[in-house]
Amino acid sequence: MSNQNTSTIIVTGGAGYIGSHTIIELLQQTDYNIVSIDNFSNSNAATFERIEKITGKQVKNLNVDICNLEALELAIAKVKNPIGIIHFAAFKSVPQSVADPLLYYHNNLGSLVNILKICKQLKISNFIFSSSCSVYGNVEKLPVTEETPFSPAESPYGQSKQMGEDIVLNYTKSVSDFKAVLLRYFNPVGAHPTGFNGEFPRGRPDNLVPYITQTAAGILQKLTVFGDNYDTRDGSCIRDYIHVSDIADAHVKALNYLIENKQKKASTVFNLGTGNGVSVLEAIHSFEKVAEKKLNYEIGPRRAGDVISIYANNDLVKKELNWSPKYNLDEMMLSAWKWQLHLGEK
Ligand code: NAD
Ligand code: WQD
Question: Which helix (H) or strand (E) holds 142?
Fold first, then answer.
Protein backbone atom coordinates (compact mmCIF):
# COMPACT_ATOMS: atom_id res chain seq x y z
CA MET A 1 0.00 0.00 0.00
CA SER A 2 1.35 3.43 -0.92
CA ASN A 3 1.89 6.23 1.54
CA GLN A 4 -0.48 8.97 0.41
CA ASN A 5 1.65 11.76 1.88
CA THR A 6 4.71 10.89 -0.18
CA SER A 7 3.14 9.60 -3.40
CA THR A 8 2.12 11.72 -6.36
CA ILE A 9 -0.82 11.43 -8.70
CA ILE A 10 -0.30 13.10 -12.08
CA VAL A 11 -3.42 14.62 -13.62
CA THR A 12 -3.04 15.51 -17.30
CA GLY A 13 -5.42 18.21 -18.48
CA GLY A 14 -5.75 19.38 -14.87
CA ALA A 15 -6.62 22.94 -15.92
CA GLY A 16 -9.61 21.73 -17.93
CA TYR A 17 -13.24 21.22 -17.03
CA ILE A 18 -13.27 17.64 -15.72
CA GLY A 19 -9.59 17.56 -14.68
CA SER A 20 -9.98 20.58 -12.39
CA HIS A 21 -13.07 19.15 -10.67
CA THR A 22 -11.23 15.87 -10.19
CA ILE A 23 -8.25 17.67 -8.65
CA ILE A 24 -10.66 19.35 -6.20
CA GLU A 25 -12.05 15.94 -5.15
CA LEU A 26 -8.55 14.43 -4.90
CA LEU A 27 -7.39 17.31 -2.69
CA GLN A 28 -10.47 17.02 -0.50
CA GLN A 29 -10.69 13.24 -0.28
CA THR A 30 -7.03 12.08 -0.28
CA ASP A 31 -3.57 13.12 0.91
CA TYR A 32 -1.74 12.45 -2.35
CA ASN A 33 0.49 15.12 -3.85
CA ILE A 34 -1.19 16.26 -7.04
CA VAL A 35 0.72 17.49 -10.09
CA SER A 36 -1.10 18.68 -13.21
CA ILE A 37 0.29 18.68 -16.74
CA ASP A 38 -1.52 21.10 -19.00
CA ASN A 39 -0.34 23.35 -21.84
CA PHE A 40 -3.47 25.53 -21.60
CA SER A 41 -4.43 24.76 -25.20
CA ASN A 42 -8.09 24.79 -24.07
CA SER A 43 -7.86 26.39 -20.61
CA ASN A 44 -5.83 28.87 -18.63
CA ALA A 45 -3.86 29.18 -15.42
CA ALA A 46 -6.74 30.88 -13.56
CA THR A 47 -8.18 27.39 -13.01
CA PHE A 48 -5.56 26.83 -10.31
CA GLU A 49 -6.64 30.01 -8.49
CA ARG A 50 -10.20 28.66 -8.48
CA ILE A 51 -9.02 25.29 -7.18
CA GLU A 52 -7.15 27.09 -4.39
CA LYS A 53 -10.19 29.20 -3.55
CA ILE A 54 -12.30 26.06 -3.10
CA THR A 55 -9.73 23.78 -1.41
CA GLY A 56 -7.22 26.19 0.15
CA LYS A 57 -4.47 24.22 -1.60
CA GLN A 58 -2.03 25.11 -4.34
CA VAL A 59 -1.43 22.72 -7.22
CA LYS A 60 1.71 22.63 -9.34
CA ASN A 61 1.16 22.59 -13.10
CA LEU A 62 3.77 21.56 -15.64
CA ASN A 63 3.10 23.59 -18.78
CA VAL A 64 4.12 21.03 -21.39
CA ASP A 65 2.63 19.75 -24.62
CA ILE A 66 2.23 16.04 -23.86
CA CYS A 67 2.77 15.28 -27.55
CA ASN A 68 6.38 16.48 -27.07
CA LEU A 69 7.98 13.40 -25.50
CA GLU A 70 11.34 15.00 -24.77
CA ALA A 71 9.79 17.95 -22.93
CA LEU A 72 7.42 15.61 -21.11
CA GLU A 73 10.26 13.37 -19.91
CA LEU A 74 12.24 16.36 -18.65
CA ALA A 75 9.25 17.77 -16.77
CA ILE A 76 8.13 14.48 -15.22
CA ALA A 77 11.68 13.64 -14.09
CA LYS A 78 11.18 16.30 -11.38
CA VAL A 79 7.97 14.73 -10.03
CA LYS A 80 8.54 12.88 -6.76
CA ASN A 81 7.31 9.28 -6.54
CA PRO A 82 4.56 9.26 -9.20
CA ILE A 83 2.34 6.23 -8.62
CA GLY A 84 -0.68 6.99 -10.79
CA ILE A 85 -1.80 8.98 -13.83
CA ILE A 86 -5.28 10.21 -14.63
CA HIS A 87 -5.17 11.12 -18.31
CA PHE A 88 -7.74 13.76 -19.27
CA ALA A 89 -5.70 15.80 -21.76
CA ALA A 90 -7.29 15.66 -25.20
CA PHE A 91 -9.24 17.82 -27.61
CA LYS A 92 -13.00 17.25 -27.39
CA SER A 93 -14.95 19.21 -29.98
CA VAL A 94 -16.89 16.94 -32.32
CA PRO A 95 -17.33 19.54 -35.14
CA GLN A 96 -13.69 20.66 -34.88
CA SER A 97 -12.60 17.04 -35.24
CA VAL A 98 -14.64 16.72 -38.43
CA ALA A 99 -13.03 19.90 -39.81
CA ASP A 100 -9.48 18.93 -38.75
CA PRO A 101 -9.21 15.19 -38.13
CA LEU A 102 -5.39 15.13 -38.18
CA LEU A 103 -5.28 17.57 -35.27
CA TYR A 104 -7.44 15.14 -33.27
CA TYR A 105 -5.50 12.01 -34.16
CA HIS A 106 -2.22 13.80 -33.42
CA ASN A 107 -3.23 15.33 -30.10
CA ASN A 108 -5.49 12.66 -28.65
CA LEU A 109 -3.49 9.63 -29.71
CA GLY A 110 0.01 11.17 -29.64
CA SER A 111 -0.47 12.39 -26.07
CA LEU A 112 -1.83 9.00 -24.98
CA VAL A 113 1.08 7.04 -26.49
CA ASN A 114 3.57 9.41 -24.82
CA ILE A 115 1.87 9.14 -21.43
CA LEU A 116 1.97 5.35 -21.64
CA LYS A 117 5.68 5.51 -22.57
CA ILE A 118 6.18 7.51 -19.36
CA CYS A 119 4.27 4.84 -17.41
CA LYS A 120 6.59 2.23 -18.85
CA GLN A 121 9.80 4.20 -18.20
CA LEU A 122 8.88 5.14 -14.64
CA LYS A 123 6.97 1.93 -13.80
CA ILE A 124 3.80 3.83 -13.00
CA SER A 125 1.19 1.13 -12.67
CA ASN A 126 -2.15 2.85 -11.97
CA PHE A 127 -3.80 4.49 -14.96
CA ILE A 128 -7.20 6.05 -15.61
CA PHE A 129 -8.29 6.99 -19.13
CA SER A 130 -11.03 9.48 -20.08
CA SER A 131 -13.23 7.79 -22.61
CA SER A 132 -16.65 8.81 -23.84
CA CYS A 133 -20.09 7.43 -24.64
CA SER A 134 -19.31 8.57 -28.18
CA VAL A 135 -17.44 5.25 -28.58
CA TYR A 136 -20.83 3.52 -28.88
CA GLY A 137 -21.93 5.50 -31.95
CA ASN A 138 -25.57 4.88 -32.84
CA VAL A 139 -26.92 2.11 -30.63
CA GLU A 140 -29.99 -0.04 -31.09
CA LYS A 141 -30.62 -1.23 -27.55
CA LEU A 142 -30.91 1.01 -24.51
CA PRO A 143 -29.58 1.51 -21.92
CA VAL A 144 -26.05 0.84 -23.12
CA THR A 145 -23.93 -1.53 -21.05
CA GLU A 146 -20.16 -1.84 -21.23
CA GLU A 147 -20.77 -4.92 -23.40
CA THR A 148 -22.72 -2.99 -26.05
CA PRO A 149 -20.62 -3.31 -29.22
CA PHE A 150 -19.16 -0.20 -30.80
CA SER A 151 -20.84 1.08 -33.96
CA PRO A 152 -18.73 3.09 -36.39
CA ALA A 153 -17.82 6.37 -34.69
CA GLU A 154 -19.79 9.43 -35.78
CA SER A 155 -16.70 11.68 -35.83
CA PRO A 156 -12.89 11.60 -35.75
CA TYR A 157 -13.20 12.67 -32.10
CA GLY A 158 -15.31 9.59 -31.26
CA GLN A 159 -12.93 7.44 -33.27
CA SER A 160 -9.95 8.82 -31.35
CA LYS A 161 -11.63 7.56 -28.17
CA GLN A 162 -12.32 4.12 -29.68
CA MET A 163 -8.68 3.90 -30.77
CA GLY A 164 -7.51 5.33 -27.43
CA GLU A 165 -9.31 2.53 -25.59
CA ASP A 166 -7.62 -0.08 -27.82
CA ILE A 167 -4.22 1.49 -27.19
CA VAL A 168 -4.71 1.35 -23.41
CA LEU A 169 -6.09 -2.21 -23.47
CA ASN A 170 -3.32 -3.52 -25.75
CA TYR A 171 -0.63 -1.84 -23.68
CA THR A 172 -2.15 -3.29 -20.51
CA LYS A 173 -1.98 -6.80 -22.00
CA SER A 174 1.68 -6.33 -22.96
CA VAL A 175 3.06 -5.62 -19.49
CA SER A 176 2.61 -7.08 -16.05
CA ASP A 177 1.98 -4.79 -13.08
CA PHE A 178 0.02 -2.22 -15.07
CA LYS A 179 -3.64 -1.68 -14.26
CA ALA A 180 -6.08 0.56 -16.05
CA VAL A 181 -9.61 1.85 -15.56
CA LEU A 182 -11.35 3.29 -18.62
CA LEU A 183 -14.26 5.58 -17.82
CA ARG A 184 -16.84 6.28 -20.52
CA TYR A 185 -18.46 9.58 -19.55
CA PHE A 186 -21.93 10.29 -20.85
CA ASN A 187 -22.82 14.03 -20.88
CA PRO A 188 -20.85 15.82 -18.14
CA VAL A 189 -22.58 19.06 -17.10
CA GLY A 190 -22.83 21.49 -14.21
CA ALA A 191 -20.21 23.15 -12.06
CA HIS A 192 -18.76 22.87 -8.59
CA PRO A 193 -21.65 23.32 -6.10
CA THR A 194 -19.96 26.51 -4.78
CA GLY A 195 -20.34 27.98 -8.28
CA PHE A 196 -16.63 28.94 -8.22
CA ASN A 197 -15.39 26.48 -10.85
CA GLY A 198 -16.99 25.25 -14.04
CA GLU A 199 -16.79 24.82 -17.78
CA PHE A 200 -15.01 27.51 -19.75
CA PRO A 201 -16.04 27.14 -23.39
CA ARG A 202 -14.01 29.17 -25.85
CA GLY A 203 -16.22 31.05 -28.29
CA ARG A 204 -19.74 29.83 -29.03
CA PRO A 205 -20.40 26.61 -27.11
CA ASP A 206 -21.29 23.39 -28.95
CA ASN A 207 -22.88 21.79 -25.91
CA LEU A 208 -26.39 22.23 -24.59
CA VAL A 209 -25.87 23.34 -20.99
CA PRO A 210 -23.36 26.17 -21.58
CA TYR A 211 -25.59 27.26 -24.45
CA ILE A 212 -28.55 27.41 -22.07
CA THR A 213 -26.69 29.37 -19.38
CA GLN A 214 -25.12 31.82 -21.86
CA THR A 215 -28.54 32.44 -23.41
CA ALA A 216 -30.09 33.06 -20.00
CA ALA A 217 -27.21 35.45 -19.18
CA GLY A 218 -27.89 37.39 -22.40
CA ILE A 219 -24.52 36.50 -23.99
CA LEU A 220 -26.31 34.49 -26.68
CA GLN A 221 -29.62 35.60 -28.07
CA LYS A 222 -31.55 32.38 -28.42
CA LEU A 223 -31.19 28.64 -27.98
CA THR A 224 -32.27 26.40 -30.83
CA VAL A 225 -33.62 22.99 -29.87
CA PHE A 226 -32.30 20.68 -32.56
CA GLY A 227 -35.49 18.87 -33.52
CA ASP A 228 -38.76 18.06 -31.75
CA ASN A 229 -40.00 15.36 -34.11
CA TYR A 230 -37.88 12.41 -32.95
CA ASP A 231 -39.51 9.24 -31.73
CA THR A 232 -39.08 10.16 -28.03
CA ARG A 233 -41.56 11.11 -25.29
CA ASP A 234 -41.56 14.83 -26.22
CA GLY A 235 -39.90 14.65 -29.65
CA SER A 236 -36.51 16.03 -28.54
CA CYS A 237 -33.31 13.97 -28.16
CA ILE A 238 -32.52 12.05 -24.97
CA ARG A 239 -29.15 12.13 -23.18
CA ASP A 240 -27.69 11.03 -19.85
CA TYR A 241 -26.53 14.28 -18.20
CA ILE A 242 -24.22 13.73 -15.23
CA HIS A 243 -22.85 16.26 -12.75
CA VAL A 244 -19.13 16.94 -13.21
CA SER A 245 -18.49 16.53 -9.46
CA ASP A 246 -20.02 13.04 -9.61
CA ILE A 247 -17.65 12.26 -12.47
CA ALA A 248 -14.77 13.64 -10.40
CA ASP A 249 -15.76 11.53 -7.40
CA ALA A 250 -15.77 8.40 -9.58
CA HIS A 251 -12.12 9.11 -10.49
CA VAL A 252 -11.13 9.18 -6.82
CA LYS A 253 -12.92 5.87 -6.29
CA ALA A 254 -11.35 4.36 -9.43
CA LEU A 255 -7.90 5.45 -8.26
CA ASN A 256 -8.38 3.87 -4.82
CA TYR A 257 -9.73 0.73 -6.50
CA LEU A 258 -6.51 0.44 -8.51
CA ILE A 259 -4.09 1.40 -5.76
CA GLU A 260 -5.76 -0.84 -3.18
CA ASN A 261 -5.60 -3.74 -5.66
CA LYS A 262 -9.35 -4.31 -5.65
CA GLN A 263 -9.44 -4.74 -9.42
CA LYS A 264 -9.25 -8.44 -10.21
CA LYS A 265 -8.41 -7.93 -13.90
CA ALA A 266 -5.70 -5.81 -15.50
CA SER A 267 -8.28 -3.42 -16.93
CA THR A 268 -11.93 -2.50 -16.45
CA VAL A 269 -14.25 -0.32 -18.50
CA PHE A 270 -17.04 1.54 -16.71
CA ASN A 271 -19.95 3.59 -18.01
CA LEU A 272 -20.22 6.83 -16.10
CA GLY A 273 -23.75 8.11 -16.34
CA THR A 274 -26.72 8.49 -14.01
CA GLY A 275 -28.76 5.94 -15.93
CA ASN A 276 -31.53 8.51 -16.51
CA GLY A 277 -32.45 9.61 -20.00
CA VAL A 278 -33.40 13.30 -20.08
CA SER A 279 -34.82 15.11 -23.11
CA VAL A 280 -33.57 18.49 -24.34
CA LEU A 281 -36.92 20.06 -23.42
CA GLU A 282 -36.82 18.50 -19.94
CA ALA A 283 -33.32 19.92 -19.43
CA ILE A 284 -34.56 23.38 -20.48
CA HIS A 285 -37.56 23.18 -18.14
CA SER A 286 -35.37 22.09 -15.23
CA PHE A 287 -33.12 25.08 -15.89
CA GLU A 288 -36.10 27.47 -16.05
CA LYS A 289 -37.39 26.12 -12.72
CA VAL A 290 -34.15 26.43 -10.74
CA ALA A 291 -33.00 29.71 -12.32
CA GLU A 292 -36.55 31.14 -12.00
CA LYS A 293 -36.15 32.47 -15.51
CA LYS A 294 -37.84 31.91 -18.87
CA LEU A 295 -35.35 30.82 -21.50
CA ASN A 296 -35.49 32.29 -24.99
CA TYR A 297 -35.59 29.17 -27.18
CA GLU A 298 -37.12 27.99 -30.42
CA ILE A 299 -37.53 24.65 -32.11
CA GLY A 300 -35.19 24.26 -35.07
CA PRO A 301 -34.14 21.55 -37.50
CA ARG A 302 -32.33 18.40 -36.45
CA ARG A 303 -28.54 18.62 -36.07
CA ALA A 304 -26.58 16.31 -38.38
CA GLY A 305 -24.94 13.40 -36.59
CA ASP A 306 -27.13 13.52 -33.43
CA VAL A 307 -28.09 10.16 -31.99
CA ILE A 308 -31.76 10.11 -30.99
CA SER A 309 -31.40 8.64 -27.56
CA ILE A 310 -28.58 7.35 -25.38
CA TYR A 311 -28.26 6.67 -21.68
CA ALA A 312 -26.15 4.40 -19.52
CA ASN A 313 -26.63 1.23 -17.64
CA ASN A 314 -24.39 2.10 -14.66
CA ASP A 315 -24.81 -1.11 -12.61
CA LEU A 316 -21.16 -2.10 -12.97
CA VAL A 317 -19.63 1.15 -11.71
CA LYS A 318 -22.09 1.26 -8.81
CA LYS A 319 -21.19 -2.26 -7.76
CA GLU A 320 -17.44 -2.30 -8.36
CA LEU A 321 -16.50 1.24 -7.31
CA ASN A 322 -19.28 1.65 -4.75
CA TRP A 323 -20.10 4.90 -6.54
CA SER A 324 -23.46 6.48 -7.09
CA PRO A 325 -24.40 9.88 -8.47
CA LYS A 326 -25.30 12.44 -5.78
CA TYR A 327 -26.69 15.24 -7.93
CA ASN A 328 -30.03 15.33 -9.76
CA LEU A 329 -30.89 17.27 -12.90
CA ASP A 330 -32.10 20.37 -11.04
CA GLU A 331 -28.84 20.47 -9.05
CA MET A 332 -26.81 20.11 -12.25
CA MET A 333 -28.65 23.06 -13.79
CA LEU A 334 -28.48 25.20 -10.65
CA SER A 335 -24.72 24.72 -10.31
CA ALA A 336 -24.20 25.57 -14.00
CA TRP A 337 -26.27 28.73 -13.52
CA LYS A 338 -24.37 29.72 -10.34
CA TRP A 339 -21.11 29.38 -12.28
CA GLN A 340 -22.46 31.48 -15.15
CA LEU A 341 -23.52 34.20 -12.68
CA HIS A 342 -20.10 34.00 -11.00
CA LEU A 343 -18.40 34.53 -14.38
CA GLY A 344 -20.64 37.54 -14.96
CA GLU A 345 -19.54 39.11 -11.68
CA LYS A 346 -15.86 39.08 -12.68
P1 NAD B 1 -11.08 20.36 -21.46
O2 NAD B 1 -10.72 20.83 -22.84
O3 NAD B 1 -11.76 21.31 -20.56
O4 NAD B 1 -9.75 19.83 -20.72
C5 NAD B 1 -8.72 19.20 -21.39
C6 NAD B 1 -7.42 19.86 -20.94
O7 NAD B 1 -6.32 19.20 -21.58
C8 NAD B 1 -7.34 21.33 -21.34
O9 NAD B 1 -7.04 22.10 -20.18
C10 NAD B 1 -6.22 21.40 -22.36
O11 NAD B 1 -5.49 22.60 -22.27
C12 NAD B 1 -5.37 20.18 -22.01
N13 NAD B 1 -4.64 19.58 -23.14
C14 NAD B 1 -5.15 19.16 -24.33
N15 NAD B 1 -4.18 18.66 -25.10
C16 NAD B 1 -3.02 18.77 -24.39
C17 NAD B 1 -1.67 18.43 -24.66
N18 NAD B 1 -1.30 17.90 -25.83
N19 NAD B 1 -0.75 18.68 -23.71
C20 NAD B 1 -1.11 19.24 -22.52
N21 NAD B 1 -2.37 19.59 -22.21
C22 NAD B 1 -3.31 19.36 -23.15
O23 NAD B 1 -11.91 19.01 -21.64
P24 NAD B 1 -12.77 18.21 -20.55
O25 NAD B 1 -14.19 18.45 -20.82
O26 NAD B 1 -12.24 18.46 -19.21
O27 NAD B 1 -12.45 16.72 -21.01
C28 NAD B 1 -11.47 15.94 -20.37
C29 NAD B 1 -11.40 14.59 -21.02
O30 NAD B 1 -12.67 13.96 -20.92
C31 NAD B 1 -11.04 14.59 -22.50
O32 NAD B 1 -10.23 13.47 -22.78
C33 NAD B 1 -12.37 14.45 -23.18
O34 NAD B 1 -12.27 13.88 -24.46
C35 NAD B 1 -13.09 13.53 -22.22
N36 NAD B 1 -14.55 13.63 -22.27
C37 NAD B 1 -15.15 14.85 -22.12
C38 NAD B 1 -16.53 14.96 -22.19
C39 NAD B 1 -17.22 16.29 -22.08
O40 NAD B 1 -18.35 16.42 -22.53
N41 NAD B 1 -16.62 17.29 -21.47
C42 NAD B 1 -17.30 13.80 -22.42
C43 NAD B 1 -16.66 12.56 -22.56
C44 NAD B 1 -15.28 12.50 -22.48
C1 WQD C 1 -26.95 17.41 -26.12
C2 WQD C 1 -28.35 17.48 -26.70
C3 WQD C 1 -28.45 18.18 -29.01
C4 WQD C 1 -27.05 22.26 -28.35
C5 WQD C 1 -21.30 15.60 -27.08
C6 WQD C 1 -20.28 14.73 -27.76
C7 WQD C 1 -20.00 13.50 -26.93
C8 WQD C 1 -19.62 13.88 -25.50
C9 WQD C 1 -20.64 14.79 -24.90
C10 WQD C 1 -17.22 14.16 -25.34
C11 WQD C 1 -28.43 16.94 -28.12
C12 WQD C 1 -29.14 19.18 -28.11
C13 WQD C 1 -27.44 20.95 -28.15
C14 WQD C 1 -28.02 23.21 -28.80
C15 WQD C 1 -29.68 21.48 -28.75
N16 WQD C 1 -18.39 14.63 -25.44
N17 WQD C 1 -28.74 20.57 -28.35
N18 WQD C 1 -29.30 22.77 -28.97
O19 WQD C 1 -23.97 15.84 -28.76
O20 WQD C 1 -24.92 14.55 -26.78
O21 WQD C 1 -22.50 14.88 -26.96
O22 WQD C 1 -20.83 15.93 -25.74
O23 WQD C 1 -16.87 13.01 -25.33
O24 WQD C 1 -18.95 12.84 -27.55
O25 WQD C 1 -20.79 14.35 -29.02
O26 WQD C 1 -23.91 16.83 -26.41
O27 WQD C 1 -24.43 18.98 -25.40
O28 WQD C 1 -23.91 18.92 -27.88
O29 WQD C 1 -26.03 17.97 -27.05
O30 WQD C 1 -30.85 21.15 -28.94
O31 WQD C 1 -27.71 24.39 -29.03
O32 WQD C 1 -28.73 18.86 -26.79
O33 WQD C 1 -29.17 18.00 -30.19
O34 WQD C 1 -29.64 16.27 -28.23
P35 WQD C 1 -23.91 15.49 -27.34
P36 WQD C 1 -24.52 18.27 -26.69
Answer: none
Geometric angle at alpha carbon 319, from 317 and 321, rounded to 5°: 55
- Quick check: helix, strand or coil at residue 6? coil
Q: Which ligand is nearest to the CA of 236?
A: 2
User: How does the average pLDDT of the chain come out, rounded?
Assistant: 97
pLDDT greater than 90 at residue 2: no
Beta strands in 103-213 (DSSP E): 126-132, 179-185, 187-189
Burial of 287 (0-12, 13-18, 19+ CB in 10 A): buried
Spatial contact of 96 and 22, defined as CB atoms under 8 Å apart: no
Q: β-strand 267-272 against 223-226: which pairing, if any? A: unpaired
Judge whether 120 and 45 are in contact, CB under 8 Å: no
| Least distant ligand from the CA of 295 | 2
Amino acid 345 reads E
Ligand 1 contact via 178 beta carbon (within 6 Å): no
Mutate to test the pocket of ligand 2, among 98, 208, 221 (most ligand atoms within 8 A of CB): 208
Q: What is the pLDDT of residues 65-106, one digit of tens each?
A: 999 999 999 999 999 999 999 999 999 999 999 999 999 999
Reference 180, options 90, 132, 119; nearest CA is 119
Cβ-based neighbours of 117, under 8 Å, separated by 6 or more? 69
pLDDT of residue 345: 82
What does 241-282 look like in DSSP terms, one character per residue? EEEHHHHHHHHHHHHHHHHTT--SSSEEEEEES-S--EEHHH
pTM of the shown model: 0.98
Q: Which of 64, 17, 20 has the alpha carbon at shortest distance from 39?
A: 64
Instruction: Please count the CA atoms within 13 angstroms of the CA of 123 that sit on its side-chain side.
Output: 3
Strands (E) in 93-163, as ranges, are 126-132
Ligand 2 pocket check: which of 187, 296, 307 to mutate, most ligand atoms within 8 Å of Cβ? Answer: 187
Q: Within 10 Å of residue 194's Cβ, how many Cβ atoms?
A: 15
